[in-house]
Amino acid sequence: MKRIGLMGCGTVADYGHIPVILNTPGLTLHAVFDPDPQRLRFVQEKFGLANTYQDEASFFASGIDAVTVTSPAPCHLANIRAASRAGKHVLCEKPLGMTEDECREMIDCTARAGVMLFTGFDYRFSPAALQIRQWLRDGAIGDLRSLRLIYIWNCHGKRQRNDQGLLVENARRQGRMDEGGPMVDCGVHQIDLARFWTGSEVQSWTAAGAWVDEYDAPDHMYLHMQHDSGAHSMVEISYSYCHTCQQPVNVFTYDLIGTKGLIRYDRNAKILDMRNQDGVFTMPFAPEKNFAALYEHFRDALAQGGSDVLPTGLDGLMAAKISREATDALVAQCPRGSK
Ligand SMILES: NC(=O)c1ccc[n+]([C@@H]2O[C@H](COP(=O)([O-])OP(=O)(O)OC[C@H]3O[C@@H](n4cnc5c(N)ncnc54)[C@H](O)[C@@H]3O)[C@@H](O)[C@H]2O)c1
């Protein structure tokens, strides 16, 4: 049984990581850390957790084998430095770091400490993502030439009701925009999928963006990536698609075009199909996230001392680097950027 310590008891820990760790055979959630006592109390009561820490040293001394980092992205480097000093393996949420340099330091400090570092790109483990990769490997659509990956949504909306029922600015959304906006925060998943499905490194990229609202970073962005294989990927990400609407809608799709066919995934329509010269092949729909498989692979990596399957620190670095450089280039050009 491997004992996991979790750093950052916020939203994704609450709906994803904590329940999944608790349900993964071979793992136990031994300790959780958060500087916010309210968040600690919330998860302690909700999940019946015994060991909760506001003090990092006590958390690391509690007898854990590995940590999972689910704090906000600007805290990841400090958390990973501390885990390395304590000799603990790390599974870190995306985006791995705020910059390429931060990611390099994470890779270096974990390597020096002799501990493993993995990036929590859970989209890779969705049965839909794995089915798409299988179709590609089987040559079902011939040579993969074009990927169009779209996620446009309201990022929880511009305003939310506070305890008094008043509409106030949504601090969570503002935080995500301050950290770099939709491509840095969400688009890293799509960038990683493009690298995963093509099996090919990104050679060059260009970006375009729009400022729907008053943020430094563009809140609606397009990224065009050219892969070594010759394939092209387009990622479209928005945080301002209906962000002020009473009844928001969203779009989440993958389209992969090959020389002999097409693969489509549509989250809202619940479509996963492949069509080629032989007909249309429909597979059961699956959501885009799969934390359960992520933790099964993390458990196996801890048992075996390595993994051929889990996304690495370098995978996290590549997605963080591309998304950050693309966003920064737009901010530097745009009159609305750095107001
Ligand atoms: N894979 C996914 O699908 C997915 C979904 C949502 C968020 N995320 C990622 O997960 C991370 C957390 O996102 P969230 O939405 O849960 O954020 P959140 O703001 O809801 O929660 C973050 C928690 O971390 C705590 N925290 C603050 N400073 C800390 C520190 N120094 N060390 C440890 N904990 C600290 C906060 O008190 C809070 O409880 C981000 O990197 C985000 O991009 C991933």
TrEMBL record:
<feature type="domain" description="Gfo/Idh/MocA-like oxidoreductase N-terminal">
    <location>
        <begin position="3"/>
        <end position="121"/>
    </location>
</feature>
<dbReference type="GO" id="GO:0000166">
    <property type="term" value="F:nucleotide binding"/>
</dbReference>
<dbReference type="InterPro" id="IPR055170">
    <property type="entry name" value="GFO_IDH_MocA-like_dom"/>
</dbReference>
<feature type="domain" description="GFO/IDH/MocA-like oxidoreductase">
    <location>
        <begin position="130"/>
        <end position="263"/>
    </location>
</feature>
<dbReference type="GO" id="GO:0016491">
    <property type="term" value="F:oxidoreductase activity"/>
</dbReference>
<keyword id="KW-0560">Oxidoreductase</keyword>
<comment type="similarity">
    <text>Belongs to the Gfo/Idh/MocA family.</text>
</comment>
<protein>
    <submittedName>
        <fullName>Dehydrogenase</fullName>
    </submittedName>
</protein>
<dbReference type="InterPro" id="IPR036291">
    <property type="entry name" value="NAD(P)-bd_dom_sf"/>
</dbReference>
<dbReference type="Pfam" id="PF22725">
    <property type="entry name" value="GFO_IDH_MocA_C3"/>
</dbReference>
<dbReference type="Pfam" id="PF01408">
    <property type="entry name" value="GFO_IDH_MocA"/>
</dbReference>
<dbReference type="InterPro" id="IPR051317">
    <property type="entry name" value="Gfo/Idh/MocA_oxidoreduct"/>
</dbReference>
<dbReference type="InterPro" id="IPR000683">
    <property type="entry name" value="Gfo/Idh/MocA-like_OxRdtase_N"/>
</dbReference>
